[in-house]
Amino acid sequence: MTTLTGLVLGYVGLMKAHQDQASLTDLVYWDLQLFTLDCDGLENVELNTELQFARFLVPLATFYAIAEVAVYLFSERVRGWNVRRRWSGHIVVWGESTQAVLLVERLLERGERVVFVGDGETGRATGRYFSVEGGTPTPGVLRAAGVSRAAAVYAFSDDTSANMSTAMAIVSVQRGDRPPIKSYVWVPDPELCHALRARRLGLENEEAARVEFVNPAQLAARELAAERDREQLGHVLVVGLGAFARSLVVELARRQRELHGPGRARLTLVGADAPRMWRTLLAAHPVLAHWDARPLDVPTTEFNLRAWSGRLASGELPDQTYLCDPDTALRGALTAVPLWHGRPRSLVVCLEQSLTYDGLFQSDALLDGLRGALGVFGVTESACRAEFDDHDLVEQLARSIHRRYLGFGTRTASDVTWDELPETFRHASRAQVAHIGEKLLRANLLIAPIFEVPRPFEFSDSQIEELAALEHDRWRNERLRAGWRHGAHRDDTARTHPGMVDWPRLPEPEREKDREFVRALPGLLAAVDLRLIAPD
């Protein structure tokens, strides 16, 4: 308003001062020159009242705009400085991609403070969000994102090599006085992801840096399989043989076996060369023996789901169907009338992204979702909503170790389920997993992913004795750091334990516990599709 008033007064004043001898364009040009404090129209004229006001009002608007810009730039610097110097325990998300954007949205919804690093310019900060320009992980960009004080970093670009470079750069800024920064690296190739996880687990002193490789197909399969955790599936139909479909078949088998025992459920698997694919999967994942598999060697584009389901008797129809071929899934679901009988989400259409279709069938205002029987599942969105700690290989093995510990029938403070277990004891199980790499180095063994039927592996007696002593030394040192000492009886309050002695003085029953852990190690690794091999 001040600017407009000044321009109007300036025009009127100039017109009066030049007594209608100047053209309209000259008057407008001179009026605009008031912004620059150098107006040709004020030379050799008497300044009337209008010009007196205008020559101050218009430049004042200029100074005000400059001050606004300066304040904005300074405030952005202050916000950036606060992120670099004061934020701690925040989440850093790296990479401009669909999955990175989805992850940022999910973290903000969860109440986390997020620093997003991408190729765009540094953006406006809010109380919980700040963006930093930086396509490559240079030291300056790492400092700007406050990586050294972050709780976790997600390298979620579409380029696996760029994600790996980011993880390496983050390890280089790890400060020794802080807990290891958790880094999650997005790896779209399932087999490569599995192989990289094996190499991380085999690294000596794995606790020095917590890097976890995550695959969208495996993450999403875990999320989808969890929907039927409490239901025993009798007949499952999976159409498609892509990475997500294969991961889903494995995850369903694993969860069904854990929850409902060794009974076999029927699986119909549809896709080109399905029998060969099934044999390959079965060799790599022994848990698939849970299925009574009937692979159909039919390309998904030629598979007529309506006709196939129409030929089955009501008792043979699948009680859960997953359509995983993006080109045929939606059409198949909407035309296979015999499959509309099921429970909620018994007919699931699996797409790379469901942002459009999911809303269509959830809203009564547009399309009927078969009275709830039809569900649309987005692989990418679901992968970004997953609980990444549950996917962490160290976490999975730590849970398995604790379940095995419960099998001993002990009666201590740690004799509870993992979810009820105090964090102190959870950390002890994770530390036991993190030490696997050092044990294998001592025994000259390597961890390999299972891609075919593995050869049986057993430790020799001398290896068992050596590694059991190594495990006892690790446990004893960990307890010493936590303030435990030797005592005739275990007392969790006083922190005493009869096993707080060196290996030669350790009672035989305690030695046998360590030996049993070593003997169980091949089975623990096999449960996550890993095996031990001797390189020679």
TL;DR?
The chain is α/β, with parallel strands linked by helices.
Provide key terms for this protein.
536 residues; single chain; six-stranded parallel sheet
Describe this structure in words.
This protein has 536 residues and is an alpha/beta fold. The protein has 20 helices and 16 strands. It has helices at 2-17, 24-33, 49-85, 98-109, 139-144, 160-172, 190-201, 216-226, 243-260, 274-284, 305-310, 329-335, 357-362, 379-385, 388-391, 393-406, 423-434, 436-442, 461-481, 508-526, and strands at 91-94, 114-118, 129-133, 152-155, 182-186, 210-214, 235-239, 265-271, 291-297, 320-323, 347-351, 374-378, 446-449, 485-486, 496-497, 530-533. It has a 6-stranded parallel β-sheet with strand order 3-2-1-4-5-6, sandwiched between helices. The model is unreliable at 71-80 (pLDDT under 50).
- Looking at how many chains there are and whether they match, the oligomeric state comes to single chain
CA-CA gap between termini: 84 Å
Strand line-up in the sheet with most strands: 3-2-1-4-5-6
Mean pLDDT: 80
Estimated share of beta-strand residues: 5-15%
Architecture blueprint of SSEs:
Elements: H1 2-17, H2 24-33, H3 49-85, E1 91-94, H4 98-109, E2 114-118, E3 129-133, H5 139-144, E4 152-155, H6 160-172, E5 182-186, H7 190-201, E6 210-214, H8 216-226, E7 235-239, H9 243-260, E8 265-271, H10 274-284, E9 291-297, H11 305-310, E10 320-323, H12 329-335, E11 347-351, H13 357-362, E12 374-378, H14 379-385, H15 388-391, H16 393-406, H17 423-434, H18 436-442, E13 446-449, H19 461-481, E14 485-486, E15 496-497, H20 508-526, E16 530-533
Parallel strand pairs: 1-2, 1-4, 2-3, 4-5, 5-6, 7-8, 7-10, 8-9, 10-11, 11-12, 14-15
Antiparallel strand pairs: 13-16
